[in-house]
Amino acid sequence: MDVRVERTRRALQEALFALAREHPLEEVTVADIVTRAGVNRSSFYQHYSDKETLLADALDAAAEFAGADLPEMAEPLAGPPQALFDYLVHLDENAEVYRRVLGPHGSAIVMARLRGRLESIVQEGIARTSTPAFEGLPLDVVGAGIAGSALGVIEAWLARDPRPPVTTAADWLWRVLLGPGGPWQAPTGR
């Protein structure tokens, strides 16, 4: 990608991300974004059709910058991977933005992007580990179910006041993702 294009896109992403920390998304205008980014309005529309797509890109870039990309895993892990902690730290540090984006008046575009990203990660992970747990289920169905559960846990955690620490959120998320019968479950005595 052209360096100027990348620089403009990054400036727009950073501007909207900063504005989304300060104001509800519906109050942020394209004029606010381009003023903060130091570019003109036509530059905005050369790169983005709307502010929600820009916000989805901005959140992806911020998560990537935070080191929150999930690693490739060849085998199931005994506990949450470090990248999950990194991602949750990123969410925690930007909780207001994510509460606004994932909440009842949030962004359908951003939610769809997050869901799609999680579904892809899940599908790739299941395909690599060849776990028998989902045998007979279509991979897209499993990905959608697990991504939906993960987003539900994240939304519930971010909505709590006071918000529990990241370690608690990681434990909740990991336990929900592994489901009943995980390694933490106490023996039933049978």
TrEMBL record:
Record-linked InterPro entries: Homeodomain-like_sf, HTH-type_Tx_Regulator, HTH_TetR
DNA-binding region: 29-48
Keywords, comma-separated and alphabetical: DNA-binding
All copies of domain HTH tetR-type, residue ranges: 6-66
Molecular function GO labels: DNA binding
Pfam family, any one: TetR_N
Transmembrane segments: none
Source organism, top-level taxon: Bacteria
Protein name: TetR family transcriptional regulator
